């Protein structure tokens, strides 16, 4: 027992051993919140206060849940069987599978991920003849999810005008469609479970009596519904469960998805929390990194306020690299990685972070070309790839023929002569008779009808072949029997898709091995149906940290959001440019900017020993070249903590506030192999223009050239247009006339 608690500092010790009452641990990054939470679970069990069955722990990602379980297991002599650790979605899925009847769901209900949900909504809008101009599918999706996250069914939403009345009507239609098809989206998982527990008193009491301890990590990112859900499970009053929440208001980064930091205050008030413990010592990062993080977050006004300290040495300076272009940034990254590996660092301990998924393509390309093994977390998730979705759709239809989303995805894939007109006729027939598409096939006449019947026969054939097969064999059979393999063999870029389909078979094999024993049917044989359903849920919920061919020692690539809660020896934070990070979308209001800054704080605090910040002056994104200013977040790091790897440049562009650059000459040598951005303007071919010259521009008027970069057709100049601002313009594109 004592070995469990040794090494904890005083505040951590107090938190781990708190009596079983509601408690809030409010603490900064890397201060040991997750460690406290896992140690408390082990301590509760080991000190005999509760059996593993009495504990429920919630966290945000599957990766975090797996790590949490691993940490707890490692601390205990015996496997803690019966302990529930998972994400909100995962736990809800588990409850709904067990109590599907009470929840009003078919036993084999399927989960729609957000792509499937969007497809389902588009289909609904089309069927109802609702124009995309008035109700874009994405807006409807956002609306429905926000209502669900606020705990509101369509019948409970108040419509204030005609427009909102129509929107609520669409929400109602969507509910009917999902119910008919036996599918639930992510928000529905939560809402349905919440309603189940709210309405079903015996069931609620059962779980309230069972889970005496509920522990929540990353509490700052819970939304309203999740908080209601927790409240419902915990029960109130003196007999309620001990709800133990840990969080950091400075790391709240999901407001855009309805997360509500206010839950912390609500929790404090509603549960009459007597103990709030603050942890202020950071164990993760070296001094310079921590100071940088503190300095950045200090710019935010809406904070509960805390300051982290460490007794670790300052460590290395924060390295900053300003690249000419995104390609240049990627090449530098590769070189730096190669030299790190040369110095003996392991790739696994290196993370490359970015603000948006779209940035990963260039980085991946460079890493791939250089032969550096890498693994992408949560990018285009494995299970979201087109070919995988197709295969899964066939599998879903085997389990649930009424799943119209799956039906429409593959009814004509691979192409089998079923055109849009036939589908429309089928949809009309289904709507008319109030059934799923499968059940309306008989109503379609002619060639289209007979092609549809053949499709049904194909499904029936696959269903027959399925019996007696193991899960991976079944998937392999479906991939070939449905014609997917043949189709991709003939496609130009089909090879990679075929490999991914093979990977799906391996994923199923791994899954089946892990699930072994859980699905024994009456005969003692594995129950394929149950196994397949669980595999499909896994595919919908899995955070996608699955990558073909990733070696064990691979560099880890992910968005900053996905890096929450994790730590790495070395972190590269790329793309620090105004408009990218902070993101364009956030720049309208102070709240948006503060959320971006918290995201920056999360990013910086992932690093233990070394932190690189990089940016590119020009970047190709969504098919357009953008010329960017340096991110204001770079300027918020005190210069004395930084070491610039690139030489100061003429006309260095800086976002507010004014910035004094710190530069160490010795670092310049590191940049030699990149196409050196010229520091002198002399001799540059600017098509007859020069720095200091007055020029006129069609839109911005007259200005003066204050800086220049590149040469010939790549040349760019920075022009001060007075009131119109200071702009960078590519000479090849912008028409500038000397005046
Ligand atoms: P985040 O806010 O990023 O989620 P956190 O507060 O959950 O961070 P942890 O991940 O629990 O922090 O801990 C950060 C690191 O510090 C981990 O490597 C952990 O093992 C280590 N650590 C925590 N407490 C101690 C301690 N008392 N002694 C030594 N190391 C510690
Ligand atoms: Mg944590």
Protein architecture, described:
With 739 residues, the protein is α/β, with parallel strands linked by helices. The chain contains 27 helices and 21 strands. A hairpin with a 5-residue loop joins strand 19 and strand 20 (726-730). The longest helix is centred in the last third of the chain and has 22 residues, at 494-515. It is globular and about 75 Å long. Mean pLDDT is 85; it is low at 543-550 and 650-683. Magnesium ion binds at residues 33-34, 217, 565.
Report low-confidence residues grouped into runs of 5 or more: 543-550, 650-683
Can you give the helix content as a percent range? 40-55%
- Using the coordinates above, name the CATH class of the largest domain: Alpha Beta
- Please, how many helices? 27
CATH topology descriptor of the largest domain: Rossmann fold
Shape: globular
Structural class: alpha/beta
How large is the radius of gyration? Answer: 28 Å
Secondary structure layout plus pairing:
Blueprint: H1 2-5, H2 10-16, E1 23-27, H3 33-46, E2 55-59, H4 62-75, E3 84-87, H5 88-98, E4 110-112, H6 114-127, H7 137-149, H8 162-181, E5 183-185, H9 186-199, H10 201-210, E6 213-216, H11 224-234, E7 242-247, H12 262-270, E8 275-279, H13 287-297, E9 318-325, H14 326-342, E10 350-354, H15 360-369, E11 374-376, H16 386-399, H17 404-410, H18 420-433, H19 437-440, H20 446-466, H21 471-481, H22 484-489, H23 494-515, H24 528-541, E12 555-559, E13 568-573, H25 590-604, E14 607-621, E15 624-627, H26 632-635, E16 642-644, H27 665-668, E17 694-697, E18 701-709, E19 716-720, E20 726-730, E21 736-738
Parallel strand pairs: 1-7, 1-8, 2-3, 2-6, 4-5, 6-7, 9-14, 9-16, 10-12, 10-13, 11-12, 13-14
Antiparallel strand pairs: 14-15, 17-18, 17-21, 18-19, 19-20
Helix pairs in contact: 2-3, 3-4, 5-9, 6-7, 6-8, 9-11, 13-25, 14-15, 16-17, 16-23, 16-24, 20-21, 21-23
The structure holds adenosine-5'-triphosphate and magnesium ion (MG).
